[in-house]
Specification:
Layout (H helix, E strand, L loop, with lengths): L2 H45 L11 E7 L6 H5 L6 H12 L12 E9 L2 E10 L4 E8 L2 E8 L1 E12 L4 H7 L4 H11 L14 E11 L4 E13 L4 E8 L6 E4 L19 E4 L2 E4 L6 E4 L2 E4 L5 E3 L4 E8 L5 E6 L4 E11 L8 E2 L4 E5 L9 E8 L2 E3 L14 H18 L3
Antiparallel strand pairs: 1-2, 2-3, 3-4, 4-5, 6-7, 7-8, 8-9, 9-10, 11-14, 12-13, 14-21, 15-20, 16-17, 16-19, 17-18, 18-20, 18-21, 21-22
Length: 419
């Protein structure tokens, strides 16, 4: 046998073995695939008998802001829901928030579904003035109420401002919130005439609270903890302090003397003293007569505050004084406010009002040449000059309470790094 034949026989044997292996494996793989496809097909055919048609529920969400004069009921009227559902929603929400007193721009979020032109309210969320989320959520056939606060963090902010042109404008330019500015003004309304005593170059310092949500966005401002007003000759420092004897928070000067007085000298912000107390030529009648009050010129609609806590003794039209309110205070004092454009909501004879509460708005009703507030102070039934009256002071801290206050002041000054 030749050498070639000797090598050829083993090669042919290997070739046949390899060919058989390929055919065997190829044939098995095909069977496997076919069986798999067949099995899968059979499963799909069997399962379709148990499947129901796919239902897609589309959920809508409206974000609304309360407009002036708009009621919550009017908002619900825009949705196709039954009166019984509407009643359930209103009843649930009213248990946590007074829907008749929602502020303009109150945020309302309504989540709902629609099917065949029928609306189903799933959830309503109302953000109240305290930044609480009041939620009404549908569960079965009822609506349940949930309440949660969006405020998560408290922060203290210190602002120092040199006054240029006006206190309000300078403070706004320093990014101090308007309600903090109003708090500041009210603190000094007993002792400072903001129309005549504030000058360019005077300095203010305010240390106040802000409340932030989970994204660290400021949602609400709190109380002023420290305030300072530096005039040409005097500096007035005030600290907010809670006393142990009555649990009340008040403002005291550095020596522990309360900033609260019986009455405010100027029960209006941002006004100009246009006419003082005493003899003058009446702008309409044309002859000299005593002016038994002071006038503050201000734009129509400017809020007027109660100068002190008391009860409304008289309210309504009062001849030349136009729309008029007279408040009776303690210790023989009364205050009167004339020429209002309108009264604040809820004002009537016998109503108790608190110091700084809005009682009406500047107008020009009665015998008036333009919008202004005519303000009178009456002591023991005699009209006196509001700008020169000596006001009874508030309390003076003593003993252990004064010691606690002094420690508090030292700690707060250290926190603010006040020198």
């Amino acid at each position: 046998m030749s050498l070639k034949k000797l090598y050829l026989i083993p090669l042919l044997i290997l070739f046949f073995i390899f060919t058989y292996y390929l055919i065997r494996n190829f044939s098995d793989n095909k069977i496997y695939i076919e069986n798999t496809e067949s099995s899968s097909s059979e499963i799909k055919l069997d399962d379709t008998k148990n499947f129901s048609p796919l239902v897609v529920e589309v959920i809508y969400e409206d974000l609304l802001l309360i407009k002036e004069g708009q009621t919550f009921g009017e908002i619900l009227n825009n949705y196709e829901i039954s009166n019984s559902v509407k009643s359930k929603i209103l009843e649930s929400l009213n248990s946590k928030v007074d829907l008749s007193k929602l502020n303009i721009n109150t945020e309302i979020k309504i989540t709902f579904t629609k099917e065949n032109d029928l609306t189903e309210i799933k959830r309503i969320s109302v953000l109240d003035k305290e930044n609480n989320h009041i939620k009404v959520i549908k569960k079965d056939d009822n609506y349940i109420i949930e309440t949660s606060s969006i405020l998560s963090f408290t922060k203290h902010v210190l602002k120092e401002v040199t006054i240029k042109d006006s206190l309000y404008k300078s403070a706004i330019e320093a990014n101090i919130p308007p309600n903090i500015i109003m708090q500041f003004v009210n603190l000094y309304a007993f002792d400072v005439d903001f129309q005549r005593e504030i000058r360019n170059g005077n300095k203010i310092k305010i240390f106040y609270e802000v409340f932030l949500d989970r994204k660290h966005i400021v949602r609400q401002t709190g109380n002023i903890k420290f305030a300072s007003l530096a005039l040409r000759k005097d500096t007035y420092n005030l600290y907010r302090f809670t006393t142990d004897d009555n649990g009340k928070s008040e403002y005291f000067d550095s020596e522990g003397k309360s900033a609260v007085k019986a009455l405010m000298k100027t029960p209006i912000n941002g006004a100009v003293l246009s006419s003082g107390y005493g003899m003058r030529k009446h702008p309409i009648l044309g002859y000299d007569r005593i002016h038994q009050g002071v006038d503050f010129a201000a734009p129509k609609g400017t809020p007027i505050m109660a100068a002190g806590t008391g009860f409304i003794e008289k309210i309504g039209m009062n001849g030349g004084a136009g729309n008029y309110i007279r408040i009776k205070h303690l210790n023989g004092y009364k205050t009167a406010y004339g020429h209002m454009s309108k009264f604040a909501s809820g004002m009537k004879k016998g109503t108790k009002v608190t110091q700084g509460q809005t009682i009406g708005f500047v107008g020009s009703t009665g015998m008036s040449t333009g919008p202004h507030l005519h303000y009178e102070v009456i002591f023991n039934n005699k009209k006196i000059n509001p700008m020169k009256m000596k006001l009874p002071s508030g309390r003076k801290l003593k003993g252990k309470i004064l010691e606690d206050f002094e420690i508090y002041v030292a700690d707060l000054n250290k926190e603010m790094q006040v020198n």
